[in-house]
Amino acid sequence: MSYSYKIKSLEQYHQDYKKSVDDPEGFWGNVADNFYWRKKWDRVLDWNFTEPKIEWFKGGKLNITENCIDRHLATMADKPAIIWEPNNPEERTRVVTYARLHKRVCQFAQVLINNGVKKGDRVCIYMGMVPELAYAVLGCARIGAIHSVIFGGFSAQSIADRLFDAQATFIVTCDGAYRGAKDIPLKSIIDDALIGNKTVKKVIVYTRTRVPVSMIKGRDVWWEDEMDFAETQIEKNGVISFPAEEMDAEDPLFILYTSGSTGKPKGVVHSIGGYMVWTGYTFVNVFQYNQGDVHFCTADIGWITGHSYILYGPLSAGGTSVMFEGIPTWPDAGRFWDIVEKYKVNILYTAPTAIRSLMSFGLEPLKDKDLSSLKVLGTVGEPINEEAWHWYDENIGKKKCPIVDTWWQTETGGTLISNMAGITPAKASWATLPMPGVQPIMVDENGHEVTEKDEHGYLKGNLCIKAPWPGILRTTYGDHERCRLNYFATYPNLYFTGDGALKDENGFYRITGRVDDVLNISGHRIGTAEVENAINMHSGVVESAVVGYPHDIKGQGIYAFVIYNGHHGDENQRRQDICLTVSKIIGSIAKPDKIQFVTGLPKTRSGKIMRRILRKIAEGEIANLGDTSALLDPGVVVEIRDGKI
User: What is the per-residue pLDDT for 633?
Assistant: First the structure.
């Protein structure tokens, strides 16, 4: 499979970038011609950022699974689409060819139809990292159902909130999941989430861990039974047949929930045509993918990285994607390197958190590991620090593999700013240049473009984007006004990323982190309000405030300041109880790393918590807390400062 849109030189990058800005409709129309459309679009792009209204390839008819699977069958039926590495390295691996993927996706599409799922229905998927997760996602897309994958680390309450918001009517889950040394009881968590639920009609359960589960008659069905019956329906005289539903380019493909600056998660909606074009285009160009390369993205499909760069991007390009059920440090810290050696991985795409964690084990886990197949390294989820970048470069890439430092978000669908492997320049800890079609602008707090350089010669400001790219979100599910307020109202006629950035004399960008009340923990966004709401649910807590602070492994840790009025247990016991409460309500990913008990919080006379002061204390900048005279009780700052953990 050839990619006519692949950028092959720095000169071509600059030419393509200019074309994408001067004539976006012509540029993206040419890129989209590389995909299979049942009917070509009426118009490439119609947009305004005021409502916002964004439409790409409007009137175009297609099905994304025909692009990810069917069109490859004539030439690549026996080529690996997905290589599955189980949690336990002694368990049998699975190689899913494009032909096998086609059969399984058609089977599961039939299962969905048999269970009453229709085009436009919302299907919640809560599974471990097994190939069946891919079949479920693509099966939904084949019939036009909207999938909403929920990461296996979220709690029953978090799932219940998402089910309610999406008005989901169907769930696909596993009996349990393996993650390192842990067994996660997914079905029992789903059962808890469904207490009081009035919308879910069916729960389809795949057998993975064989943990005992409760199966409710009329609601719960076994995956295996359903798939066996569906196989007899789709296979006639040895031919697999399940026609893909014709969809409009602007029909929703999926909802993926992400934290915001309020306590309620936002259901980000991506539509089919633009998302497909963007993920395919960025996958091939950022990683400089060549047919036959083995691509290993270590993310979970519960996050956007897994959607875009394990499934849709690689499959639309006819690629081979490694899907890993486990964690990088189990059964030992050499697991990633074993996988690279075992499958002769060419592209390794992981998070700075994972790199820093593996650094902490030293070089012993790398001993005698053959990493010579690697051609490209990548990072995703958060800005990578220079120390980790150089460790990755020297010890994993042997200074021969370009590192692509990709910056993007759930809302962007795919990479917005990154160097392209071996084509555009790299700079340690800098995302560098925007992808074609992406028009960044740095603004100050009043929305004026930043033109004055700081003492280091950098432009510094809030990062916004001036025009849409094909992968941009279309709305937040069921609440378009929330989409407008979150992303398009802060600075008129601009998409506000929520991130701060630096820009150097070469036009390279470095992301400096969130400027709103959102934390970036191990590359995953968690709203401070969401964590505070969970902490405040604990019976002994009067009030709390949460901020981020530098963390050696996670990049950013969660520091909670808590006013406590109970008498149960000592301070350590209370901390454990609060952490357990947060785990129950959100999931263990949101547990505070530090909890400091205080008698009051720094508030203005209007009652607003001065997070700026708490952030400085958490970061250890206690000598320069700024003006505290506007506070209702300035003395509380001294107490908090002196009690810092």
Answer: 81
Q: What's the residue count for the chain?
A: 645
What pLDDT is attached to residue 450?
96
Q: Which residues, listed in sequence order, are joined to residue 82 by a DSSP beta bridge?
A: 96, 321
Name all domains of the chain by residue range, CATH numbers in brackets: 441-486+496-514 (2.30.38), 518-642 (3.30.300.30)
Two tokens at 643?
């009690």
pLDDT single digits (tens) 61-70 = 999 999 999 9
Beta carbons within 8 Å of 576's beta carbon, 6+ residues apart: none
Tokens representing residue 265 in the block:
């998660």
Alpha-carbon distance values, 461 to 166, 189, 426, 445, 599 (Å): 35, 43, 22, 8, 36
pLDDT more than 70, % of the chain: 98
Q: Is residue 612 within 8 Å of residue 548, measured between CB atoms? A: no
- Tens digits of residue pLDDT in 549-581: 999 899 899 999 999 987 777 899 999 999 999
Beta bridge partners of 222: 205
Whether cis (ω within 30° of 0) applies to the bond prior to 425 is no
According to DSSP, the residues that pair with 220 across neighbouring strands are 203
At CB < 8 A and 24+ separation, what contacts does 102-105 make? 102/69, 102/70, 102/73, 102/77, 102/240, 103/234, 103/235, 103/240, 104/131, 104/132, 104/135, 105/65, 105/69, 105/135, 105/138, 105/139, 105/142
Tell me, what's the pLDDT at 260? 63
Angle, vertex CA 36, rays to CA 95 and CA 254, nearest 5: 70
* CA separation for the pair 378, 352 (Å, rounded): 9
Classified as helix, coil or strand, 362 is: coil
State pTM to two decimals: 0.90
> DSSP of 487-529, one letter per residue?
IISSSTTSEEEEEEEEE-TTS-EEEEEESSSEEEETTEEEEHH
The tokens of 398 are what? 């042997």
For 619-635, letters b (16+ CB in 10 Å) and e give eeeeeebeeeeebeeee
- Identify whether the C-beta of residue 295 lies closer than 8 Å to the C-beta of residue 314: yes
Tokens of 133: 């997760």
Q: Is 437 left (phi over 0), alpha (psi -120 to 50) or beta?
A: left
Query: Which of these, 293, 337, 343, lies nearest to 313 by C-alpha position?
Result: 293
Longest dimension (CA), the chain: 82
Compute the half-sphere exposure of residue 371: CA atoms within 13 Å on the CB side of its CA. 24
Q: Look-up: residue for tokens 């460790």?
A: 391
Run of H or E residues at 80 = strand 80-85
The model's pLDDT over 161-202, given as tens digits with 9 standing for 90+, comes to 999 999 999 999 999 999 999 999 999 999 999 999 999 999
Contact 271, 259 (CB under 8 A): no
Residue 263: predicted pLDDT: 64
The whole-number pLDDT of residue 157 equals: 93
Q: Could you say which residues of the chain have pLDDT below 70?
A: 260-263, 605-608, 627, 629-630
Cα(171)–Cα(202) distance, rounded to whole angstroms?
A: 6
